[in-house]
Amino acid sequence: PPPPPPFFFFNHKTESEMTSSLVGSGSRIRIRGYSTFSLTPDPLIYVDGIRVNNDAQSGFAMQAFGSSVISRLNDFDPDQIESIEILKGPAAATLYGTEAARGVINIITKKGAPGGTRYSISMKQGANWFSNPQGRLPVNYWLNPATNQVESLNIYARDKAAGYEAFRTGRMQTYNFNVSGGAERIRYFIAADIDHNQGAEPDNFKNATSGRVNVEIQPSEKLSITASSGYVASRMGLSCESGCGGAMWEIVFSNPANLPQFACAGSDDPACGYALGYQSNSPRVDRQMKDWQAVGRYTGSVTANWRPLKFMTHRLTIGTDVTQEKNTEYMPYLVDDTARYLWNASVRDGYRFENRRQVNYNTLDYAGTVSFDVRPGLNAATSLGVQYYQRHNEYVEAQGNGYAGPGLGTIRAAATKPYASSDWDDNNTLGFYGQEQLGFNDRLFVTGALRVDNNSAFGSDIKWVTYPKASLSWVLSEEPGVRARMPGFVSAFKLRAAYGESGQQPPSFVALRTFSPATGPGDTPAITPNTLGNPDLKPERGKEIEAGFEAGFLNDRLGLDLTYYHTTTVDAILLRDIAPSTGFGGVGKQQYVNAGSIVNQGIEALLKAQLVNRRSFSWDMNFNVATNTGKVTRLNGTDTTLVSGDLQWKIGYQPRAWFRERIVSAEFDPTTKRAINVMCDDGAGGSTPCFNAAGQVIAPRVYLGRTVPAVEGSIGTNFRFFQRLSVSGLLDFKTGFKKFDNNLRVRCQIFNTCLENIYPERYDPKFIAAMQTNNTIKDWVIRDASFAKLREIAVTYTVPESYVRSFGARSASINVAARNLHTFTKWTGLDPEASMLSGATLEQDNLPQLMSFVTTINLNF
Questions:
Q1: Pick from 49, 111, 125, 268: CA 20 to 30 A from residue 456's CA?
Q2: pTM, whole model, 2 decimals?
């Protein structure tokens, strides 16, 4: 791919963890804080008992920018899902072993039910759009030295007035059909789904067709077999966003200084490159470049449950998840009337980059349980299990540059093929576990378990690791002696506590010492050092204590679920640079090591209230909130701090916290129009000069804030009128964290298009001092990103049976929903949820969350 536009640089750890508004994209899921130095925060995902590909960042849009946005979780059709279970952290996920320390998400798809055959049809029609772009996108300024006049430019507003619309209203369409039913011995669920969705960017779309067949057979009273099978074929078009010269880059960073400097043959065409203020390619060129991903994915499993004896059960699950991706980036040969708008003439002749990848997940899971009564009132259940997981990944990719003329598009047709590569890797986990559960009078349950794992990514000196678990659950409200002493308004009360451990494996092959091919003397094959490896590399180990209670009040009209958790991650893995003296060092050479410990703790609360419950009117409300406090508690060796650009892992502070110099005072010199006498926080409650006489920063870096929200939650409510009309709403929020506003930095510090650049005397000298430091002090762009978002308002109407029976249906409903209606925030960027790189910590010309309006009609026969 071509190089990035100029001035695209910053000092962040690149993880490509993006929250994008492109159709088909997704966000990484983080459970209970950030508990690693360098590994992924993603939980495991299971579908019908088998482990599946949970890649949150596949695909690419201008690959050089790491703008991978497609989430594999979006391959599963929500209309085919029966339920989702979330296991939070090591205490809940012990039996899933290595890789489960970040939690587990279990997705259960729909099954058939005994009875006659039932048919369901649903149709969704809607639209999404960039709400109020003219009022949200920035205006950029330039002081024309020839006239001494301030000129302004908002490309979006100007082009819209000229008849060119940068964004569109994207149409959203979904058609779903399913049939289910069964008898005593066989049950079935068959579904098909078609999606055609468009994004606000003209090149962004997702077209998908999926199908599912689930069958349950019961040959005898002792044996049942369930088969689950799903397939999806999709194609997603990506728009070039987040710095790669696309529409958002041009609009956010347009520059009035470019207007008089270039000629465009006297044209006022809004697609006319620099002459009309664009920083790089004009929309005419952007529309030529195409990025897309084509996917074919099969997920299938078979589960057999066998009860040979009344007290004995066996369960065996086998399955596979196969994802085939084809990622393509293509720029055709550009003819003269388009090529003259290029910012990078080297790509005029076009190119094609292609990546084909196949990811296989294979699962074998067996569990056997013997359950018996030890004595009256005491039941014991003993379980033994074995699990085997395999992940196989292979890819091939190539690039071709330069076409002889228009109409060519394959890599073979290109004049040069500078790049071709193929590779594969395997990762295998074998685990055994045993569990004992004792139940006393069906009220008190005590569980103990032990798991033993081995994984192919462990260091050669690490053989097996063990993960213990213990839990207790006590339904106090059913204890006769306790029930008599409880207040009358308490209808149910249950205590629970658990301790558990789980792991997170390192990436494949990183424990091994490897060598790269090279050309030796006389063009003979040779090898050269590549990666140092680490034979002592262990998995990260999460150790969690969890305690809480569930209570019901006023005949269960009010429910409260409260949980406290304390998670310690030991042997946390860090990717560190290697000293050149090892022979494996140099630029970009790194090694994975177990570097220290991280603690996360917090409270999770869920309050459910049935405020009104009458025949003609009911009102329910849910409120959930979760807090998180994390800190680095230990670093191996003598270090107390790990630094990665503007982020630090520092003992006693939140992992991945912001640390930069902070300006506390400054004065403004009207003669030079520069800030002077700039003083910074000295980290001890006082101040110190920020710079020495040579202009170098000498002030210490101090803590500026968290990258992970300290508090997040949601408020949901539902009103029901006359059993037929319901109105629901959802508001969610996140507070107590900061993000990097790179829109502000690039505009004001790189392109100098802010009013602060022209009239610095009108603004706070501290802000001007930071802005004038040439990217060395950044506290001015690390800003509060707390927000509350009115996520959804929905209205559902259930059609009277007398109407639907007239055309043979059993029931029908109509749902109208509006999403992303308003964001309440002080964030200075476009959207506090939009992020480009660095683990969701930086926003740069991302398309903000789109407002949408969708109508759904459901018919059941």
A1: 49
A2: 0.88
